[in-house]
Specification:
2 copies of one chain form a homodimer. By secondary structure, the first copy, chain A, is α+β, with helices and mostly antiparallel strands. Chain A has 6 helices and 6 strands; from the N terminus they run H-H-H-E-E-H-E-E-H-E-E-H. Chain A has 2 domains: about 70 residues, Winged helix-like DNA-binding domain superfamily/Winged helix DNA-binding domain (Arc Repressor Mutant, subunit A, Orthogonal Bundle); about 80 residues, Gyrase A, domain 2, CATH 3.30.1360.40. In chain A, strand 1 and strand 2 form a beta hairpin. Chain A binds a DNA duplex (30 and 30 nucleotides) through helix 1 and helix 3.
DNA sequence: ATAGTTTTTGCATAAATATTCAAAAAATAT
DNA sequence: ATATTTTTTGAATATTTATGCAAAAACTAT
């Protein structure tokens, strides 16, 4: 029992290290990550890194300049947020209408929350509040005029 | 100018369709997505699908049952929370003890609330309730045996 | 301790994905 | 219209990632 937790700890350390490495560096491939790990003293191959990434549920995202990089899921937002959310809006929005001081956006099923988040994050001017169901987003503006203007802005945004 | 927007529209339609398809189905590979698109009348190859996925900034995430699937970015934030909370626990927890059906966690000052939230969010099995002061967390389990087991789990979690 | 079980890992390779390059289509300018 | 530039695409292929399998390590029970 003298080496009880040796391998286990080593793996845990490695997983933690992977999270740190991809947080601190732009890691484009598993091969690159493997090199980072080796340089920190871990004896590891791409195969294991692939398994680790699966276990950590890391994701590979399109980054600036035609590159890809690994990231923590849900954390990719800090990079290139505008492009990303614009893309989400562009492809998920079906219709945009304005009614009184509301703008009503219909989306493909399940995408309303994502669109709402996109709209909030993109921080369009004068948005008072946003609420989303499954395929519908309500955006509250100060008045009818602003709602109309915002609907137009949104339409331009999604093409 | 007679065919002004023909290709453009076709691509946009395809991108929209891709978002819909991955929203409605569990799409594991680009090859599979290509087949879906072909079955909907798009004349497309894996190479183009790869480019579309990059443009849409879709992500491939680890799914249940050793599978992968494509998803819209920003929809999987719960996993990141997990990683982050594990880190919180790892760095803030000082001691873990069990007394009767309680597990008592001592933390660095001011971190108990955070640890409590982490424990709740991580949703360890059979936790009945969690309460936190400034540097102490009480975790209520159903009985002494479960408290002992949970204390052990927690210890492993924080290393 | 020893035997049995589970987990982790590397190697080799299968599978999947990204990209180069050239051609065609589309958009733009004249 | 024609010429020019930009965008889109497929085929082939390079690159990257995932996995079957066997061996080793770690854990568990006795």
């Amino acid at each position: 029992m003298q080496e009880k937790e040796c391998l286990k700890n080593s793996k845990k350390q490695r997983l933690n290290t992977i999270v740190r490495i991809i947080s601190e560096n732009s890691v484009e491939t598993q091969g690159q990550l493997t090199k980072y790990l080796i340089s920190e003293g871990f004896d590891v191959t791409q195969a294991t890194v692939s398994r680790d990434i699966k276990e950590l549920r890391l994701i590979k995202i399109a980054d600036r300049g035609d590159k890809y990089r690994y990231a923590l899921p849900g954390k990719e937002s800090n990079v290139d947020i505008r492009t990303r959310y614009t893309a989400v809006l562009t492809h998920a929005v079906i219709t945009i209408q304005n009614a009184s001081n509301l703008v009503v956006v219909k989306t493909i099923p399940g995408s309303a929350q994502g669109c709402a988040m996109a709209i909030e994050t993109l921080d369009f001017d004068r948005v008072v509040g946003v609420i989303a169901g499954d395929d519908t987003v309500f955006i509250a503006m100060n008045n009818e005029k602003e709602a109309a203007a915002f609907a137009k802005t949104l339409m331009e945004c999604v093409n």
